[in-house]
Amino acid sequence: MTLKNVSLFIISICLLMSCQNEVTVKSAQGAMGTVTADLYLNTLVEAYLYGYPLLLMNYTQQLSTNTIKPHPVIPRAPINQLGHYRKYPDHNSKAVVKPNVDTYYSIAWFDLSQGPQLLHMPATDRYYLLPFYDAFTNVFASPGTRTHGQQEVNLMIVGPDHQGDAVDGYELIQSPTYLAWMIARIETYDDNDGNTVVRRIQDHMDLRPLSAIKDTNYHAPLGQLNPTLTDMIPVQKMENLSISEYINELTSLLAKERTAPYDSAIIHKLSTIGIEPGRPFELPKDNFVLKQKLEAVPRIIHKRMRDRKSKGDTSLMINNWTMLTSKLGDYRDDYLMRSYVSFVGLGANLAQDAIYPFTTIDADGHPLDGAKEYFIHMESHELPPAKAFWSLTAYNEDDFLIENEVNKYAINSKDSLQYNADGSLDLIISASPPKGMNRNNWLPVSSYEGFSLTMRIYWPEERALDGEWMPPLVNAQ
To answer: Which of 31, 218, 262, 269 could link 27 by a cystine bridge, Cβ 3.0 to 4.6 Å?
Structure first.
């Protein structure tokens, strides 16, 4: 891995674990050799970070496609079929961390080993985007209002082995992996708007295999339901895997997927300790102390990620908000960034489509606490610079929406916000509604726990990407 922070991340774990001595490893050809315990642990941590989004995508896909037919109100559907959110997510939504409540989702998981798939998006004056993610969470295409305007869009989605052009009337979208994920987001004003205007847009979307292009009576096949997956929470499933289970899941998935050319160095390095596609993996048996330390790797890595999120990464912080505007959605060999973004919020868009400043601390650096009241003031020129719209959402310590009596989870620029006479805007974040202020300017939280704030800026202006604009301070009252 080339990122300096990866080396520092790994060194901190090695120092914590006091690695030493040597480990016997076996090559794929059966030859025996030795590596230092430090190098072994270093490489295993790199394997964990490299594989994190691949495993999380796989578990999310298992949950989201675990159904006989598309669910009527949440975006679960069999593979290669569309599932639609027919309502906003709420505090019970646990399929993905940090769900947004600004748009209705329409989601499709693709198994492109089954052949090309055809997607139709009707013409609409609503802002929308259709980002496509490969199995490692890189965005490989992002059709939508920003790129295609308001016209209808017809896409032919193909796998990495496909050769040739798209059929007439379709734009070719080629995935670098066989597993792919599309998360359509359609601007939605409120539940009534979602149940009428947005529902009609969703109903006119169509996904079918190329083989059914002229089939006017096409009916999608039934899926399968596995009762053991119904209540799975992917991110918790990840954390509960032992290191042996994790690496064996990784080698199994790598045997089915394509890796990028820039992955060749890490793939070779992993092979030096016996981590290879399709090959069963065992922890070393000749160093009992090291084996115990290796088994602690998942716990320590998740603690590091939680600490980075809760305390903030000073290298990425502006006004105590963590703000990513480069590499988002296109990580290449920055595996630490890729795994961290997957942990924080799976399915991040390209920065050109949306950015997500988030914070867990106030202006004085103290953790956000639901027992306190917080105040945000933005002058008119400090409002989030969005060509589409912006929002502010609160999440609990597990990164899910916060239960509250009024079932309100976000403040949105589309709301009837109360602006001051000079065009500035004041927002309140608290467990109890503020007195003397428009409730549209209030974001409820729970008084019993800490929380985080995520701002979403859809189709950001250039000054949001180049660092000219800064997110507002969150002041404790």
So the answer is: 31
